[in-house]
Amino acid sequence: MKYISYLAFLMIILLLSSCEETSISSVDAETPVVSSYLYAGQSLDSLRVTLSNSYAREDTQLLTLDELEISITEGDNSYRLNPFGEGYYQQAALIIAAEKSYNLEFEWRGATISASTFVPAKREAKLSTSLIEMEKITNTGGFPGGGFTQIDPIEISWDNPEGDYYYVLIENLETNPEYVNDFIADLEEDLGQRFRRITEPDITDFYSINPRREITQYGTHRVIIFRVSPEYAALYQTSGTSSQSLSEPPSNIENGLGIFTGVSSDTLYFEVKKI
Amino acid sequence: MKLIRLSSCLLLMLLLVSGGLMGQATKKIKIKGNYQDRSLDLVLLDLEINYRLSFEYPESLVKGKRITAVFPKTNVENGLALILLGTGLTFEQHGPRKIAIKAAEAGKTIAQAAAKPSRQNFTIKGVIKDQNTGETLPFANIMVNGSTNGTTSNIDGFFTLFEVPDDTTVLDISYIGYRPLQFRLTPDMDMEKLSIPLMDFGVQLLEVVVQAERKEQLIQASTGVSRVGISPAALATLPSFGEKDIFRSLQLLPGISGSNESSSGLFVRGGTPDQNLILFDGFTVYHVDHLFGFFSAFNSNAIKDVQLHKGGFDAQFGGRLSSVVELTGKDGSTERFNMGAGLSLLSINGFVEAPFAAGKGSFLVAGRRSFQSAFYSNIFDAFTESNGADAPPGPVGGRFGLQEVQPNSYFYDLNAKVTYRPTEEDRVSVSFFNGQDNLDNSRNLDNNSFGGRFGGNLNFNFQSNNTDLTNWGNWGSSAKWSHRWSDRFYTNANLSYSNYYSERDRRNETTIDRGDSTITRTSGNYEYNDLKDVTFKVDNEWKLSRNNQLEFGFQTTYQDIIYEYTQNDTIQVLDRADEGWTSSLYLQDRITLQDRLILKGGLRASHYSLTDQLYLEPRFNFTYLLDDRIKLKGAWGKFYQFATRIVREDIQQGSRDFWLLANDQNVPISSSYHYILGTSLETSTWLFDVEGYYKTLDGLSEYTTRLVSSGFGPGRSLNFEEFFYTGTGTAKGIEFLLQKKVGKFTGWVGYTLGEVLYDFEAFGDEPFHANQDQTHELKIIGNYKLGRWTLGATFIYATGRPYTAPTGYYEVPLLDGTTADFFEVSDKNGLRLPAYHRFDISATHDFNLGTSKASLGLSIFNLYNRSNVWYKEYEVIEGELLETNVSLLDFTPSLFFNWSLH
Fold this sequence. Notes:
The complex is a heterodimer.
Chain A: H1 2-17, E1 32-39, E2 43-51, E3 53-54, E4 71-74, E5 77-80, E6 82-83, E7 88-95, E8 101-108, E9 111-118, E10 125-127, E11 131-134, E12 154-158, E13 165-172, H2 182-187, E14 196-198, E15 202-203, E16 206-209, H3 211-214, E17 219-228, H4 230-236, E18 257-274
Parallel strand pairs in A: 1-18, 11-18
Antiparallel strand pairs in A: 1-2, 2-7, 4-5, 4-8, 6-7, 8-9, 10-12, 12-16, 13-14, 13-15, 13-17, 17-18
Chain B: E1 4-5, H1 9-17, E2 30-39, H2 40-51, E3 54-57, H3 59-62, E4 66-75, H4 76-83, E5 89-95, E6 98-103, H5 110-114, E7 120-130, E8 141-144, E9 150-152, E10 158-166, E11 170-174, E12 181-184, E13 194-198, E14 219-224, E15 227-230, H6 246-250, E16 276-280, E17 283-284, E18 289-290, E19 295-296, E20 303-309, E21 323-329, E22 338-344, E23 347-356, E24 361-370, H7 374-387, E25 408-420, E26 426-440, E27 443-446, E28 461-484, E29 489-513, E30 518-545, E31 548-567, E32 571-593, E33 597-608, E34 613-625, E35 630-641, E36 643-648, E37 656-661, E38 670-682, E39 686-703, E40 724-740, E41 745-760, E42 768-769, E43 776-786, E44 789-798, E45 802-803, E46 806-813, E47 819-825, E48 831-832, E49 836-849, E50 852-861, E51 869-877, E52 880-887, E53 892-900
């Protein structure tokens, strides 16, 4: 009886031990990358197709695809794009209309690469002020007696009932802008560079800038409010830089990588004047 | 033969003055015994002093013999029979109060020699208690010596044992962390109200002699199928990372991953931590992490018993796919007031316990709080730096007024329990638990932050509150009433409340006050998850006969879960409020056939209000005793889970998780089948246990904000519900455990071979290895007793976990003229991190401070300073891929000191 017991014990161990191995594969293929923005009201002047750079390859040179037959369709209209080198394509006859859907399609190595986007309508934005006056702070004269006059924040606002993504670009348009604060100018490594601020796409309906704290230069500033699609906002939600979080990169291209998206924008200006 | 007389001067004097009593027969003398692991000669001396007895025996016969005997007042014959049980000795009366001890005749045991049973084949009822504190002990084994007839005490320590051969039978009582006891029944005992005391290993013995055979077990792995008991009292002897930790020690068992330093959650047989049902005094605990998961939320000072069911669990439990951890809180001493305190490099803790109402009631309060030490900061930094949580969020920053942020962070937990026993048959207890983690990285700016540069303008004030607050915690409470209707029927009713909340506030609020108007703007994001669980359950045990026991009951749970994720105070990205009722009935029958085959069959039926459907969960398990050493065992069952924890991946701010109720539309109800087969070989010293498992997993959910696919056309909207991805999976493996249970050296070797495959359509056509997949895992745990010192060591080796790596990169120009770099990635989890291994050691010294007890311990974590890779970071620099390994904790020594009054 005892032997039978031990035999049964061993049999179960053997039975349980018969596990099979599975192997893991890893693919190092190169994939077409589309970069294309459809601006409402403009013609399609630049769509680029490159290849992703595999780490399996020795060199890091950018490879482009120049001989593709790319078509963009909108409703019943179809446009064939013309290549003009370095992976770039254009079609002057294709004027992008707001609130329309566009489809991209081409073949590569037997696969159909495709994408679709909807071009959002422009949303009018408002600025709380178009003129700001600020004292100059010099490194010789010191601070003005009695402190600074406070300046109201510049508020940029627009309607966003749909909960769409917007982002704001503010840039100084002067060729050789003067600094508000000499102390800051002294710290600037690349003097003469224009003030430029870009926010990330966000579901928001305002942006506020505190001139005293944030604006460093005098002169005319341009404000562009971009209305973008979620597929563009997704580009900012990076796919991670750690192995814990690395996943497929954000892309709205089927069988490919990159972006094909519609954009609209509104442009406003304000002036920063020295007093 | 040289005879010696063991008697003191005092005894002689007593004998002389009380000479008139000498004529009485020893039968009229009643003796009482409470000897735990004492040397026999001292026991005899004790009897001589206290009962004026006189023993004669050769010294060589008694030398080195140690006994354990606990008995109420009985006659000398019975008492001595118990004392000499198992020593190979017997006794003979040589005159009034004069007794000779001699070697027993071959084949005649002392039990036979002394016992005159008055009852045969009857039932006994009783309770198992800690001798020192009066705390009742659940899940203790009570066996009739030399037979397979036995039972287990229930959660309140009560037991009923049928078919006891006679009233002089010897019972073998064992419970992890306590000295095993041979308890002999005597005819004059009250068989309806037996109270059997056990002594824990922490109790200092009077003698400093090291016993050759000490049965000090940390784990008890042989009680059932896939079931392990853990002794919280014995945990201090294991190497630890600053604090002794129940969940960390569970991770040392085979089948449970021991390489996840950054989570105290349990990955049981390929399952994830949210698939475990954690019950603390009957209420469900939904989140077990302190300090980002380096410690668990449970204070081992407040817990007396831990039972882990790794799979195939009974019909009594439901609502989870993977495992059950049952934690029973201490009731508090019914014997005397006791208090204690402890200090480690990480936290300070204390407890108070006391009886009231003449021992009918008792309470215990235990608390713990971390403090900001270099040790704490070390762990804190390891986590926060790698997740970038200290980066200032939001668009405001500016060139002026940058401030250093000193994060304010701590955790605490508090346990309290009051137990009252109005009658012998009733117990009422109320248990309370609260634990919280708080991390405040906030900073506030105002006019003054700029050195008075705005000071000239009194008409204006601005204030910028940059909030960066992360906190999470649990509140739990239960009220329990247990009643023993008869020796066959026991009922346990439990009303519980549990609340888990998690809040992440990363908002910047700017208030500008110009005297006549105030403008407030908010940016950033806010995330809040709040889960409330109210449960009422009734569990019944009905012992139909010795071989047949029914367990049945019902449970109804109301869950209310809120999850909101808001950006900029105005736009709600996700706003879910789910509430649902889960009502279950269960019935289970446990049948023993011919003392060899134990069959358990059960069914759990649950109605879930969100789907308005009935879910049936059949369960089955068996144990077959091939002989007294070898056991075959197996289990099968179906398991459903209705509340699911979703992980929201967020790269920039660290991943967050939240609980949701499944609705079978976008979040599926998950289910699993378990198939378990195993065998074990157990001797008095060794246990060799093997279990194989196979689990199917259905309705797994994963949530992501990255694979964006919004609606389309003019009416498009951002439908975040689309970001739940669902899939299936399988987990299979085999676990080996070789345990040395007794002796100076104890410990175990555990090995697990396992595989977890997930199949998600969204991640490709082929199944991939889940994040928690580990092919090999080896754990070696050893404890060595050296007088008052205990030396401990643990070694863990585990195959590296799977990860996803970049295989290439590409750039996309953005609208603002910059470019963004992207990685092209390998198949999901297509690669493996290097193997994980580490070696920890510890030394604990127990000593007395006056009449109080103290222990001092040193632990060294990761002794040979292995750099175990936690994850990899990637960067593209001029087209080249730069890979950085982010490592887990390195060599870390830690100290602790514990003190208690008794």
